Amino acid sequence: MYKPTVAVVGRPNVGKSTLFNRIIGERKAIVEDSPGVTRDRLYAEGDWLNYTFNLIDTGGIEIKDEPFQQQIKMQAEIAILEADVILMIVNGRDGVTSDDLFVARILQKSKKPVVLAVNKIDNYEMRSEIYEFYQLGLGEPWPVSGSHGLGLGDALDEVVQHFKSLETEVEEDPSVKVSLIGRPNVGKSSLVNAILGEERVIVSDIAGTTRDAVDTAYTYEDQPFTLIDTAGMRKRGKVYEATEKYSVLRATRAIERSDVVLVVLNGEEGIREQDKRIAGLAHEAGRAIIIVVNKWDAVEKDEKTMREFELEIRSNFQYLDYAPITFVSAMTKVRLKTLFPLIQEAYASSHMRVKSSTLNEVLVDSVSMNPTPTDSTGRRLSIYYGTQVSVGPPTFVLFVNDVELMHFSYRRYIENQLRKAFDFTGTPIHIITRKRN
Ligand code: GDP
Ligand code: GDP
């Protein structure tokens, strides 16, 4: 099912962060009495009625050294680009300000639906403060109080009203979604172009909406794929495209929509901290992953260089031991042909289903080769039965006598045994333990 995105916009200090936290239902971000406070998160999942949606707090995306008006303009533009519905927040205690009018005018020009919430209406008597906000031209103002948790339900009802029209617009798409993520300049755009330019790839017309304008549909060996280009947006030359927070947000959103993620590294520059952070996002999301070392043409090398780089990747990305590595060049097209089989294999692995009978044979053999651990009182872990509950990534539930007895190292051992028995190349696997009732 399509998961809509809501972006929260407004001037600093109107209460965006407070409302964001209310909606995601956790009090995680730090709220202080000063504008531009540090935020823990600017992207999270929210629920209202029967809807689950993504929520972006655009107030958390800042570019240093830009003037104030430039900042709020940028935040509004990001909201327009990323969101299906925009939740504009104003401060009922300040009345309409020229900055509110400035933001409202930018939003009006877009075709995106906007819901206007007047915050800091902490009691019933204050409700008359909302009427002057009609002049923003964004429709009915909804009184809310982020700190007291008032009125938010009515505003969210209005937000989800807009979701209803989205559902009919977006149809299920059976293609395998592939994205490329990585630091700026590693060669993502060049790779996208090179991949789409391969002779056996048939690029079809871009399906769908403007929101997905950077997606490209193609067919390879009769299998439909969609390539999600996270870099394409940046090429429009907007200043904020280069901010780290926005590129992390874009990567997170691309990963969420992907089945297979190509983590692109720059062979010429080697591994940086930011590479690890970006790869970590894909791993945590449970996506199938291929590590692509680009610009291999520009690397001075002998017969040991590739092996050495591989070892360096393995030691820097230990949690990605399941991800295959390929060394390519978007420029000379060297080994580009390896990408398609790797993508197909990783997708197949992440969607493999193991029969319960086979799985339990492997579990019994594993336990007989390496007995389950005991705790300090001598109580031993018993694994009664295992079953696969989902794919993308393959997720297994093991029914045990006591979940506390399953140590990290034994879980790791079981994972390795499963990987020996079945080909899970390119995909993480999840193992969940449950106490048997
Ligand atoms: P942001 O900069 O727009 O994200 O604003 P914050 O969420 O950081 O809030 C700014 C200040 O307004 C903080 O001191 C909040 O405690 C306060 N605040 C937020 N919502 C309300 C509200 O509904 N009523 C009142 N009285 N204060 C609020
Ligand atoms: P992105 O920011 O990750 O999308 O990177 P781009 O695709 O824009 O590439 C950044 C720069 O690296 C450009 O100047 C490209 O020409 C260059 N580049 C990309 N791929 C290769 C490659 O395989 N070899 C070499 N030598 N340069 C490359």
Strand-residue proportion: 15-25%
The structural domain count equals 3
Order of helices and strands: EHEEHEHEEHEHEEEHEHEHEHHEEHE
Tell me the span between the first and last alpha carbons.
Answer: 33 Å
Q: Assign the CATH superfamily of the largest domain.
A: P-loop containing nucleotide triphosphate hydrolases
CATH fold category name of the largest domain: Rossmann fold
What compounds sit in this structure?
A: guanosine-5'-diphosphate
**Which radius of gyration do the C-alpha atoms yield?**
25 Å
Shape: globular
- The CATH architecture category of the largest domain equals 3-Layer(aba) Sandwich
Q: How many strands in all?
A: 16
- Strand order in the largest sheet: 8-9-10-7-11-12-13
Low-confidence stretches: 27-39, 207-213
Residues in helices, as a percent range: 25-40%
SS element count, helices:
11
Quick check: average pLDDT?
88
What report would you give on this structure?
- The chain is of the alpha/beta class and 437 residues long.
- The protein folds into three domains: 5-168, 3-Layer(aba) Sandwich (Rossmann fold), CATH 3.40.50; 176-351, 3-Layer(aba) Sandwich (Rossmann fold); 356-435, GMP Synthetase, Chain A, domain 3.
- The protein has eleven helices and 16 strands.
- The chain has helices spanning 16-24, 68-82, 98-109, 152-169, 188-196, 244-257, 273-284, 305-316, 339-350, 356-369, 408-421, and strands at 5-9, 43-48, 51-57, 85-91, 114-119, 141-143, 176-181, 202-203, 215-220, 223-229, 260-266, 288-294, 325-327, 383-390, 395-400, 430-435.
- The radius of gyration is 25 Å and the shape is globular.
- The site of one guanosine-5'-diphosphate has 16 residues, from helix 5.
